[in-house]
Amino acid sequence: MTQILNEIVNYEEDTQQDKFLTFTLENEVYGLEIKYVKEIIGIQPITEVPDVSKYVKGIINLRGKIIPVIDVRVKFGKEQIEYNDRTCIIVIDIEDISIGLIVDGVAEVVNIAEENIVPPPDYKVGFQNNYIKGIGKVGNSVKLLLECSKLISEE
């Protein structure tokens, strides 16, 4: 995890294009644009907040800053599991909002050139997912690239 965070910190703003932090949920690999990733932290005590959506796990105090935390697994309609030593929180900053994303594990930072990113299948063929911005082709595998702004919406 420290090595991945160091990679993120070492990137200059202009070299962040085409770079994605990948993480896992069950057997799927997702990617977030690196420009939104502030840091990666281990799971820590979360203060529950009453009367919020099921996927909002609560808030954390990160060096004096209160950050809401969502379980991406629950947001995507997957079964909630016990957190373990691979579970981590990806802190993203988007639209002047910091939010923590609980994921099963962080994988790596990958380069995916724009020409290797295709739009998701059309909803007319039964594919409807508001969170997927595109599908990145990396070798023989695919990474589901997420639209960060839609992750923080109530949809």
Automatic annotation (TrEMBL):
Alphabetical list of InterPro entries matching this protein: CheW, CheW-lke_dom
Domain CheW-like: 17-155
A Pfam family this chain is assigned to: CheW
GO cellular component term, pick one: cytosol
UniProt-listed GO biological process terms: chemotaxis; signal transduction
Transmembrane parts of this sequence: none
Name of the protein this chain belongs to: Purine-binding chemotaxis protein CheW
Organism: Clostridium thailandense
